[in-house]
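The following block was generated as part of the benchmark described in Methods. Ligand: dinuclear copper ion.
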Amino acid sequence: MKSWQIWRQLVLFALLTLVLTGCGIQELSALQPQGPVAEMQFDLMKLSFSIMISVFVVVILIFTYVLIRYRKRPGQDGIPKQVEGSHKLEILWTVIPFLLLIVLAVPTVTTGFTLHKEYDNKEALQVKVIAHQFWWEFEYPDLGVATAQDLVIPAGKKIQFDVTSADVMHSFWIPALGGKIDTNPGLDNKMWLQADKPGIYYGKCAELCGASHALMDFKVEAVTPEEFDAWAKKMKEVQAQPAAASAAAKGQEIFKKSCLGCHAVAGEGGKLGPNLTNFADRQKVAGIRPNNAEELAAWLKDPQKIKPGNNMPNLNLTDDQVNALVEYISTLSVKK
Ligand code: CUA
């Protein structure tokens, strides 16, 4: 390869790196911590990065100095004097990394213990997380409430998570709040997180779990404690009601026949699919597409096209049935 080709590749690579750094969004970035756990973990990242960068800079400086100082000069022939072994140097470059590792290890272990102290905090709001291919179920055992895909939490309060899986291994991760932790079938893993301010924080599955692993997104909606209490109360009290409009009533009939076996609404129905009690309040359809009539219809017509390998069957609905279902499902809200 000619040298200009190497340079061209290097420049392209640098540009690509620059473009890719733009892919991070604040709501999904561990580098912009939004709670105490994420902050502690970010401090560790800063420490290890500064150590790595200092080592890199020092090595490159010595390397450049040696290259220039001991280069071959005009008139210099033959092999220069050969040197082997230096106790002084060997001790030096064993002791320096050892000290650096201690500097890294002490805060890392201390942070681990600090986080573990709250490992099973009974005072905190308890949330049970159940991962499924490819969606998230959230239960609030103390409140008797369940939801899916959008986790609603009070800001400024500790949340104690109890995470498990209904099928394969997944990993529960909300970068801006901290984490992550594996969800394993038959096992309960514990951790806690806190969002300091109300806002939307994005979460992802961080363990390869099947065809739609990359689409296994969820959201954390942190609200004020008052808003949270009101939300939980409504979620608990909401009753399955006969739909008012005629199109929605038709959709409700279809829903009872074809959907309720897997999807619960207001305490009635199955648990194989996401709970839809407050579906209309969620920002996304299936966790990934904007929540509007068009996207919901597309999902109902062919769920496999949108999330390959998920467990929602194609119900072979007619356009009329899909429209009626969309009408009905769009009424499921605890906010409106
Ligand atoms: Cu679930 Cu990846």
